[in-house]
């Protein structure tokens, strides 16, 4: 199997990046991570890129031409899939069109419920019985693209924001890899 080149965008700790790197070590996994991009210079996830000798790039999203710089780098690495893993910036319609390939995102809720930020707080406030995570295609609307994989669990009465986050992240590590396998199984 010829693996596709992928890029992972992060903003923080990078635990989903770490999980994807581990999955990519399997010879049957359809991608190799060739580039890690962060919009935060102090993102801890960059350590996983360094530790695994994966090139990484800090992109200053306040610069006017950051998207064209980013597209140039992505082209250089022949990236055919971008994975947003805790990347806390909205991808512009122009970038989506200019890139023209698959971009996927992982979100900590059962979309279409609880799009956007402060997900766990809103789930608890709404007295939800069940939650989970969704891997979906990225389009021009926030957390609105077609779902690829969803995983769920029932919320316990003692669950708080921290516990919900931990339970959700455990599901995310499985869901992200499953979604990538699913994408390339049918293409």
Descriptive account of the structure:
This protein is α/β, with parallel strands linked by helices and 187 residues long. The chain has a single domain (4-185), classed as Formyl transferase, N-terminal domain (Rossmann fold). It has six helices and seven strands, in the order E-H-E-H-E-H-E-H-E-H-E-E-H. Helix 4 links the parallel strand 4 (81-84) and strand 5. Helix 1 (15-24) packs parallel to helix 6. 35% of the residues are buried. The mean pLDDT is 96.
Shape, principal axes of CA atoms: globular
Query: Distance between the terminal alpha carbons, to the nearest Å?
Result: 13 Å
User: What is the CATH superfamily classification?
Assistant: Formyl transferase, N-terminal domain
Low-confidence segments: none
For the record, the CATH architecture stands as 3-Layer(aba) Sandwich
Task: Outline the biggest β-sheet.
Answer: 7 strands, mixed
The total beta strand count reads 7
The CATH topology turns out to be Rossmann fold
Helix and strand element order: EHEHEHEHEHEEH
What's the overall average pLDDT, rounded? 96
Highest-level CATH class: Alpha Beta
The proportion of residues in beta strands is 15-25%
Strands of the widest sheet, in order across it, are: 3-2-1-4-5-6-7
Radius of gyration equals 16 Å
Task: Please indicate the count of domains.
Answer: 1
Structural class: alpha/beta
Précis, in short:
With 187 residues, the chain is α/β, with parallel strands linked by helices. It has six helices and seven strands; from the N terminus they run βαβαβαβαβαββα.
State the main characteristics.
187 residues, alpha/beta, Rossmann fold, seven-stranded mixed sheet, 7 strands, 24% strand
């Amino acid at each position: 199997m010829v693996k596709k080149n992928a890029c992972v965008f992060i903003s923080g700790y990078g635990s989903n990046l770490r999980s994807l790197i581990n999955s990519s070590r399997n010879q049957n996994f359809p991608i190799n991570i060739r580039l890690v991009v962060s919009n935060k210079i102090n993102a801890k996830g960059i350590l996983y890129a360094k530790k695994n000798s994966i090139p990484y790039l800090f992109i200053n999203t306040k610069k006017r031409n950051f998207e064209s710089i980013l597209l140039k780098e992505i082209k250089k690495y022949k990236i055919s899939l971008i994975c947003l893993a805790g990347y806390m910036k909205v991808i512009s319609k122009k970038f989506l069109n200019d890139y023209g390939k698959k971009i996927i995102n992982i979100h900590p809720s059962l979309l279409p419920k609880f799009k956007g930020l402060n997900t766990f707080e809103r789930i608890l406030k709404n007295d939800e019985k069940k939650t989970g995570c969704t891997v979906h295609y990225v389009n021009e609307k926030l957390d609105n693209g077609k779902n690829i994989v969803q995983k769920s669990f029932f919320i316990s009465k003692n669950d708080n924001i921290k516990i919900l986050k931990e339970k959700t992240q455990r599901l995310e590590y499985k869901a992200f890899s499953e979604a990538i396998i699913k994408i390339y199984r049918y293409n």
